[in-house]
Amino acid sequence: MKHFEVIIVGGGINGCGLLRDLAxxxxxxxxxxxxxxxxxxxxxxxxxxxxGIRYLExxxxxxxxxxxxxxxxxxxxxxxxxxxxxFYLPLYNYSxxxxxxxxCGLLLYDFLSHFQNKPHQxxxxxxxxxxxxxxxxxxxxxxxxxxxxxxxxxxxALECLYDALLEPQVEALNYHEILNVTDLGERKxxxxxxxxxxxxxxATCDFLVFTxxxxxxxxxxxxxxxxxxxxxxxxxxHLWLKEDSIQSKGSxxxxxxxxxxxxxxxQRNSIxxxxxxxxxxxxxxxxxxxxxxxxYLINILKEYFPKSNLSFxxxxxxxxxxxxxxxxxxxxxxxxxxxxxxxxFRPDNKTYVLLGGKYTTxxxxxxxxxxxxxxxxxxxxxxxxxxxxxxxxxxxxxxxxKPLLTEELIRKIIKEEKVQTLEDLWRRRxxxxxxxxLKDFSKTIKLNDLKxxxxxxx
Length: 458
Ligand SMILES: Cc1cc2nc3c(=O)[nH]c(=O)nc-3n(C[C@H](O)[C@H](O)[C@H](O)COP(=O)(O)OP(=O)(O)OC[C@H]3O[C@@H](n4cnc5c(N)ncnc54)[C@H](O)[C@@H]3O)c2cc1C
Description:
Helix content: 25-40%
Radius of gyration: 22 Å
Number of helices: 12
Bound molecules: flavin-adenine dinucleotide
Mean pLDDT: 92
Order of helices and strands: EHEEHEHEHEHEEEEHEEEEEHEEEHHHHH
Shape: globular
């Protein structure tokens, strides 16, 4: 039976980020995920690297400052999968902020970024409408313009994973689910199973870490841990719209009348719109958007972009995910106000659980955990190693100049980027947003031939 110093369960951004940090610090580690890496919450975000301007309202200055620092770091480290863009926050007669309050907030936002953000600007109604001609002009008082990052969320986690796997003592398996944990005193033994072949395996470790995001409250009791629910699960959906469905040169942040924030972000020759915030009752693995969720967003868009030709036909595809928010004592009802801070739990001496936080700050969260585990393995922890550039960027970048997608390149991606199913390839390695293009895709690259590179049950 193979032994690892650390086994990580859950290969979203937190699992992949932690694997990288441990790998760079010379720790032998195994990461397993029930599905593909980054196929759950970490591909279902609003795809923003951001300080979270709205958290200023909750006076979460430390979170905003940390997130802005991280945003600016990743913009430098991974330009092939993220970029900086301007966001316009329109103000209306009924908005709860006046222009001067927004101005103060944006100034604080720039200040908390150590003025690394491009500077904000305040615009009058006519200036706003020049950039976003289709925006509702009734009651428009102007807008604040500020800068945040756009990221291919699935790919950043994958690139952390590829970087970690360059270290010989590191292994990672997608489509492997944890079934059992046995306490061996100084060690833990886990049993895990391939979800594709149903074959079972065992491995031991000095420390077991769960980075299973919103799945944690259900999983830990199943594995025999004494674990009370700690999360306030909240579902959010997004729409990918056709590029011509809304006339806007910039990204828009709508503060809706029902107190929500909806982003409209042009990117990848389309427009990303989200999100919603509802308590979850259904099964959350591979969660989908419902017609009700979609209708809610379409209605908001129709209200704020009355001159656009918006309909259900404008939708290219949809996706959904569940926020893994940590519940605060006495504040489990208002999901928008539940803290975006993370927490590390230690249900026993050899097990850690990392929960909450946001995508943008994953490096800091996982660093806090690595900083605790590495010395317990009698190794020295170097906090600066994760500041280096990732050594194995994606073979098919999301933004900027793309290589020609030849059959040879596809074969290389399948071989080198841990592709198991066609969906892994299409959705996460090639970053496609269409659901119904698999047919066209098979036409161009001879699907029958490609099948030889996938497991037989594809
Ligand atoms: C709608 C929405 C919008 C968001 N927008 C933003 C944003 O714009 N910017 C931002 O910074 N943050 C955003 N976030 C937050 C961010 O997406 C999450 O904080 C982050 O992705 C959580 O990552 P994770 O690794 O903890 O969880 P996950 O990505 O869910 O990873 C957990 C993994 O555990 C695996 N797993 C589960 N059970 C098992 C098992 N039995 N065995 C093995 N593996 C298992 C799952 O397959 C999964 O891959 C958003 C979140 C949501 C839901």
